Automatic annotation (TrEMBL):
Record Pfam families: CarbopepD_reg_2, Plug
SUPFAM superfamilies referenced in this protein's UniProt entry, alphabetically: Carboxypeptidase regulatory domain-like (SSF49464), Porins (SSF56935)
Membrane topology: Multi-pass membrane protein
Gene3D superfamilies attached to this UniProt entry: Carboxypeptidase-like, regulatory domain, TonB-dependent receptor, plug domain
Stretches that traverse the bilayer: none
Family matches, as NCBIfam families: OMP_RagA_SusC (TIGR04056), SusC_RagA_signa (TIGR04057)
Top-level taxon of origin: Bacteria
Protein name in the entry: TonB-dependent receptor
InterPro entries for the chain: CarboxyPept-like_regulatory, Plug_dom, Plug_dom_sf, TonB-dep_OMP_SusC/RagA, TonB-dep_OMP_SusC/RagA_CS, TonB-dep_rcpt-like
Length: 1053
């Protein structure tokens, strides 16, 4: 060490001399540079066709000095003599670098970026250039889906594809939950209008089994012309997902997202004193002789509110000292939503992939892990997903290529066994006076927490998919494809309801559950499909291009389900069927299958990408129909005309102006509901555990089969679509407009009623028709200024469905009727809230709505049919009494606004989604508070704005607990505005400079922070979120959606 220091000291004089020399050279160079003269460069920028290009960015290479061309394509730029080159860049054109040398005038001819014009879109059994599409197709790429803090594919594409409609189901925002999907509005009356989903050409039943990070692109085939090639299962559109593949070289990437989620919307409960006063007031309005909360309890509540440490929250129940008091005998102050839901919960996602392409082999292999913790504080809920995706393809020789795809997904759900839908229902009617703990420190029995902790419900699903294929090319451009797809989906579930020990005063314990139990289920679904199809494409020098595709597909799906349950477990430590002691088992099973065969063909023609034609036909057979009705032919045709390609079209600013039109027909198999699986075969219902005892057991039994319709056959879905696509200012301004009509006929509906002596119901027949009309508008802008690029996009779509035909001879409003627009809300027109009892003396007779006394604070309804009586008439279209159509619950004018920018590695993006018009009629205690008696009512802060003499301008009428129905008639005053706009996603990221990354032997490193559902603007009453107004037990009684903030990283090697 000392020797090295000595050597460095010896070299110090030489080092100082070197620094002095360097400084001298720097000074001389600076003087020389200062002495240099500037010069002015001028020029003109044009396209290959001679058109001048305004707005071209002209930059001094390696600096931020530059200018842009004017409207005539001219530019002027003052530069130093030392500048070596200029760069020219323009959206839609290839960037160029031009050496200056001694030139002072530089004209540049820019070439089109062919890649943009050659952009391809995945369609049925192949790809097409976007420029040549004639059907209604939209596509989103991985760039749009990446880095969203979402749990599944549905959440990633919600709001991104304007034609897709999503609705939150009864599971709400539970870990692992899914949403219902449809394309272009409602297509059926029984929910069988879901799109056909394929991943790499293989059908999937759950789109959320796919890791979003594996997706390369998603195409949506919206009209019959584009979907017809898939035939029997594509009546309501097709979603085509293509996963990533190998690219030149070897690439390794890793990405992660760490997310922190919080409930998006929870009701704000009244405190105990507000709640007690509210219930007492409502009870007295019902005519109760005694208050719900007696004076003594009210005093305890007030004392607890002032000082919780001065008094217990509960005392032994009067009349039953072995139990702790609850509800109207307790005096705590508990916010049960705060008790049961966490303030925030974590999620994490990890994906690793290896891909590459060398010589004749390309491959992509990835593994994904997703872990979502739920919001429940007690009895933690969780969902985990494991994914594996493997794709390999090889060009064996010049005429043969092989491929194999293997995908595997495991989903594991773990939650409390306590009925979760009942749990959401019970939170709403949990009284704040109930304490969380007893004075002894145990969970209070009314909290239901012991039940949440007493057992688990677990479900494990496995989805294994293999797809193999070969492509034979006997001669150039003639390809023959052989595919075989095989999928196995299995699910194993179990539910353990364990023993529950509840605690009373003085150390007393008692059982909270009569019988412990264990149930198990197992299901397996297998799908197989061989395909063979051949295509030939020929492009002639004269500009004519033909492509012909023909093929055959066969499908077989089989399903089997087993179930067993038994009560009386010997121990909760080893819950199983064999450790249960009850003599009676509850067992059952189910099985079904279906099959299809189809022959299909497609012809594509274009002339110079100017005149476009596509013809499709599919001849399908389905096992669901009888032999004479089994087969159907479903044709489609679409045409396109790119006016901007005509020689006479001299509008320089317009690059693309394509007009499209299509018509097509598709068959609908009526879905996979059990009632539609064996339409022509009498089925015998088999039941277990009959109600009567024979010998020592309750026997299984069978009932007579119902009648069948021997002529029930395909529903027909016919679609018309007219569209226009445009690209302006060198495709910086792009967009499309589609207007469509979908007419569905021969849907199953009620047949003519027969006399009751028949002894069974009349089978359905093909007699129902629906008509859907709508439009989709997309407008986008993309540009670049120097090294700053930005983009913006807006979409607007709408679809309305009417019942064109339905058997309802009386026109009763309780079911569908001809001319009905789906989502219609019939109700009364509200005059207002009566301010005095005498207001009803000279008002119309409302006694048919309620025989109770009408008083100040009650609702006054308008008389629309001038008969002096407020009623519903015959409750028919022709005589609805004083009812009328007051709104529609179908979301109307759904829109999105997105924007983003990128500057020197810093990127920003945001996505807003919304619904411009929607009416909601919301019922139940979440909305009304007092309804259904003391045990079915709720008390939220919003309910405190009720009518009284001191609050005459209140929102709510006089509160009741049991007689409130008269004020809760469907009416205009309380019809909710369900329109909203939501900041669906906002993201800021930074990509490290390449020079720095390459030193680390990496190809890309990006960090980002992103938020989901962070802001919602709506006029909807504060209790509800606009996307979760449903629930199995009533409106709002549902697992909350979440807002989230996430931090992520992408690393590529």
């Amino acid at each position: 060490m000392k020797e090295r220091q000595f050597l460095r000291m010896q070299n110090l004089p030489q080092l100082i001399k070197g620094v002095q020399l360097s400084f001298l050279i720097l000074c001389i160079s600076s003087i020389s540079l200062f002495a240099q003269q500037d010069k002015t460069i001028t020029g003109k920028v044009t396209s290959e066709t001679g058109e001048t290009l305004p707005g071209v960015t002209v930059m001094v290479k390696g600096t931020t000095t530059g200018t842009v061309t004017n409207m005539d394509g001219n530019y002027t730029l003052k530069v130093s003599e030392s500048v070596a080159a200029l760069t020219f860049s323009y959206v839609g054109m290839l960037s160029q670098e031009v050496a200056i040398g001694n030139q002072t005038s530089i004209d540049v001819v820019m070439k089109e970026d062919i890649q943009g014009l050659e952009e391809v879109v995945v369609v049925g059994y192949g790809i097409q250039k976007k420029l040549n599409l004639t059907g209604a197709v939209e596509q989103v790429t991985s760039e749009t889906l990446e880095n969203r803090p979402v749990s599944n594919v549905q959440q990633a594409i919600q709001g991104v594809l304007p034609s897709m409609n999503f609705s939150v189901g009864n599971t709400g925002g539970e870990p692992g939950s899914s949403m219902a999907m449809s394309i272009r509005g409602v297509g059926s009356l029984d929910g069988t209008d879901a799109p056909y989903i394929l991943v790499d050409g293989v059908p999937v039943s759950n789109i959320n089994d796919i890791n979003p990070a594996d997706i390369e692109s998603i195409s949506v085939l919206k009209d019959a012309a584009s979907a017809a090639i898939y035939g029997a299962r594509a009546a309501y559109g097709v979603v085509l997902i293509t996963t990533k593949g190998g690219k030149e070289g070897v690439h390794v990437s890793y990405s992660n997202v760490f997310t922190y989620s919080a409930p998006l919307k929870l009701p704000e409960m009244m405190n105990s004193l507000e709640f007690a006063n509210y219930f007492n007031k409502a009870g007295l309005n019902d005519g109760d002789s005694a208050p719900v909360f007696p004076e003594e309890v009210m005093g305890r509540i007030e004392q607890y509110m002032k000082d919780p440490s001065s008094i217990n929250g509960t005392f032994p129940e009067p009349g039953n000292p072995d139990r702790w008091g609850a509800y109207m005998t307790a005096n705590a102050n508990t916010n049960w939503f705060d008790v049961f839901y966490k303030d925030w919960t974590p999620r994490q996602t990890h994906t690793v992939s290896v891909s590459g392409k060398k010589d004749k082999i390309d491959y992509y292999v990835s593994g994904g892990y997703y872990d979502e913790k739920g919001l429940l504080k007690y009895g933690d809920d969780e969902y985990k997903r494991y994914t594996m995706n493997s794709k390999v393809s090889s060009d064996v020789n010049s005429f043969l290529s092989l491929r194999a795809n293997v995908k595997y997904t495991r989903g594991v759900t773990d939650r409390p066994s306590y009925d979760r839908y009942l749990f959401y229902h019970n939170i709403a009617r949990r009284w704040p006076t109930n304490p969380l703990y007893t004075p002894d420190g145990d969970y209070h029995p009314s909290s239901e927490i012991p039940f949440l902790l007493s057992g688990r419900s677990k479900s494990t699903s496995d989805n294994f998919q293999i797809s193999t294929g070969a492509v034979l090319e006997p001669i150039k451009d003639w390809k023959i494809n052989f595919d075989y797809n095989w999928t196995v989906e299995s699910n194993i579930g179990n539910n353990h309801d364990g023993s529950v020990i509840l605690h009373g005063p003085e150390g007393i314990t008692y059982s909270g559950r009569t019988n412990t139990s264990y149930s198990a289920s197992a299901s397996k679904k297998t799908y197989s499909s061989p395909n063979i199809y051949s295509s030939y494409e020929k492009e002639f020098d004269s500009g004519h291009t033909f492509k012909v595709l023909t093929g055959f597909q066969q499908e077989l799906e089989q399903y089997e389900w087993l179930y067993a349950s038994k009560q009386g477990l010997i121990t909760d430590e080893v819950p199983s069927i064999s450790t249960a002691t009850s003599e009676q088992d509850d067992v059952g099973d189910s099985k079904w299958h279906w099959a299809t065969r189809g022959f299909f063909g497609r012809l594509n023609y274009n002339f110079e990408e100017k005149y476009l034609l596509e013809v499709n036909a599919r001849y399908d057979g389905s096992s669901k129909f009888p032999g004479d009705e089994r087969w159907g032919l479903f044709p489609s045709v679409s045409v396109g005309y790119n006016l901007a390609r005509e020689d006479f079209f001299n509008v320089e600013q317009i690059d693309i102006l394509k007009i499209r039109g299509s018509w097509g027909a598709l068959g609908n198999q009526l879905g996979n509901k059990n009632e539609y699986l064996y339409l022509y075969v009498p089925t015998i219902p088999v039941h277990t555990n009959n109600w009567w005892i024979m010998g020592d057991s309750r026997p299984n039994y069978a009932s007579l089969p119902g009648l069948i319709s021997p002529t029930l056959t395909w529903a027909k879905v016919k679609t018309k679509n007219v569209g226009v696509d445009w690209g302006i200012f060198n495709n910086r301004l792009t967009g499309s407009l589609d207007v469509f009509e979908r007419y569905t006929s021969d849907l199953p509906g009620p047949a003519e009623a027969l006399p009751g002596v028949l002894g069974t119901s009349v089978p359905k027949i093909n007699n129902t028709e629906l008509q859907t009309n709508g439009f989709e508008l997309v407008i986008g802008w993309e540009d670049k200024i120097n090294d700053f690029s930005y983009h913006a996009k807006a979409t607007l779509s709408n679809a309305k469905t009417k019942v064109a035909k339905y058997r309802n001879p009386t026109g009763i409003l309780n079911t569908y009727y001809e001319g009905q627009e789906l989502g219609e809300i019939w109700g009364y027109v509200t005059e207002g809230i009566a301010q005095d009892d005498s207001d009803f003396d000279n008002w119309y007779d409302q006694s048919k709505l309620s025989g109770q006394e009408w008083r100040a604070g009650d609702i006054m309804y308008q008389n629309l049919n001038d008969d002096d009586v407020i009623d519903w008439g015959d409750n028919t279209v022709s005589n609805p009494g004083d009812k009328k159509i007051i709104g529609n619950s179908t979301p109307q004018y759904q829109y999105t606004i997105s924007a983003g920018a990128n500057w020197q590695g810093v990127d920003f993006s945001m996505l807003w989604t919304g619904v411009a018009k929607r009416d909601l009629w919301i019922t139940g205690p979440y909305f009304w508070g007092g309804t259904g008696g003391v045990w079915q009512s709720a008390g939220f802060k919003t309910h405190l704005d009720y009518w009284s003499e001191d609050n005459p301008d209140a929102y709510y009428p006089r509160p009741y607990l049991t007689n409130g129905g008269k004020n809760q008639q469907t009416q205009t005053r309380y019809l909710q505005n369900g329109a909203y706009v939501r900041l669906k996603n906002i993201q800021v990221g930074y990509t490290l400079p390449k020079k720095f990354v390459q030193k680390l032997k990496l190809s890309k490193v990006r960090f980002y922070v992103t938020g989901e559902n962070l802001l919602t603007i709506t006029d909807l009453i504060d209790t509800f979120d606009p996307e979760t107004t449903g629930g199995s037990w009533g409106a709002g009684k549902i697992y909350p959606l979440q807002k989230s903030v996430a931090f992520g990283m992408n690393v590529s090697f």
